[in-house]
Design goal:
two-stranded antiparallel sheet; 9 helices; elongated; DNA-binding; transcription regulation; TetR/AcrR family transcriptional regulator; Homeodomain-like_sf; Tet_transcr_reg_TetR-rel_C_sf
Length: 191
């Protein structure tokens, strides 16, 4: 019972931290503002997350868990499930905004999420190569290997998010991703 309550409280803190970071950015977010949002003192929050950096990494890991819970099946990642993920992200701009802001901030040398994102993108590129291999085999219709095309697929997904966040009325993220998938298939109708 106590463990379940503790897990509920951690989840509540993570949701609040995500909101605060979305509103203020990582540098503008404080432990005190997150604690206040969930009705805790800053000291009480430190019981769950000992540092701001620990909270940030937990937020990022939780966000990835949300994304990956629907993106895999028994055989691994699939291209059609990535399309569903893009559609899902289009319904939650606050989370996408937080992720994008943190990603942008993390390119500085001293940012606490830099190692997280560096490691994450190594894994994402490997996952995307596997997605492409399952869909196309060892060569895409363009002749690229899955490993060469994986950074392009990753860049497409993240770049679309930035464009959509800046001008959602001009960028239909799910439609643009479907167009990209059409290009990956060499302009052929997909099965």
């Amino acid at each position: 019972m106590v463990r379940a309550r503790s897990e509920e409280r951690r989840a509540e803190i993570l949701r609040a931290a995500l909101e605060v970071i979305a509103e203020r950015g990582y540098r503008g977010a404080t432990l005190g503002s997150v604690a206040e949002r969930v009705g805790l003192t800053q000291q009480g929050l430190l019981h769950y997350f000992p540092t701001k950096e620990a909270l940030l990494i937990a937020v990022l890991e939780e966000r990835d868990r949300w994304d990956t819970s629907g993106g895999r099946d028994r055989e691994g990642w699939r291209l059609d499930l990535l399309e569903s993920l893009v559609e899902y992200n289009a319904m939650r701009p606050g989370i996408v905004q937080t992720f994008s802001a943190l990603l942008g901030e993390s390119i500085t040398d001293e940012h606490p999420a830099r190692a997280f994102f560096t490691e994450r993108y190594t894994q994402v590129r490997a996952n995307m190569a596997q997605v492409l291999r399952l869909e196309f085999g060892e060569r895409l219709p363009s002749g690229l290997s899955p490993e060469r095309a994986a950074p392009l697929l990753t860049a497409m997904m993240d770049g679309l998010q930035y464009q959509w966040l800046l001008d959602p009325s001009a960028v239909d993220m799910p439609a643009a991703f479907r167009d990209f998938l059409h290009l990956l298939h060499g302009g052929e109708e997909r099965p």
